[in-house]
């Protein structure tokens, strides 16, 4: 292979251009100074990301008198410092439920300092166990539960005390000993017992 072929001359690359001389560093921006400005100094408030270029002596002089809060009142400075805690982002009060906000701390409940239970949503009825229906009135009854209430002649929103009282009344009324062995009364007696047991198992009484 001939290295002096005309084909090699066509594909031979040109010489790289000599690198241009490096630009001279900027001069100090301090009035009357012609030294190299190799040290950055912040311009000030509302000019974030912008810097002056000073020499070492003048950047020290500039930093001594630099004050980011220059021109602000004491109230504005305090507000800025308060907002800086959250990175100047908007914040909201923790929780949106006023009742939950006024509720006691867990430590207060454990220590016994707070004994009254708050029930903003009505999950726990005041007045102790058995003072009212366990389920809200809007609860949809199943077919067997509805039939049990009908058997006992009660409404679906009857309280636990009303169910028990009605059960005792019907048992006395339809007991075989009280009706001389009447077969109709005996069937009614069994139906009342089954209805009461169903309601009891489902937590109505």
From TrEMBL:
Pfam families reported in the protein's UniProt record: DnaJ
Molecular-function GO terms, alphabetical: DNA binding
Gene3D superfamilies in alphabetical order: DnaJ domain (1.10.287.110)
Domain of life: Bacteria
Disordered: annotated segments: 14-35
Coiled coil residues, start to end: none
Ranges where the J domain occurs: 147-204
The entry's keywords: Chaperone, DNA-binding
Alphabetical list of CDD domains matching this protein: DnaJ
Record flagged with keyword DNA-binding: yes
InterPro entries according to UniProt: Apopto_cytoskel_mod, DnaJ_domain, J_dom_sf
Protein name: Curved DNA-binding protein CbpA
Source organism (scientific name): Rhizobium aethiopicum
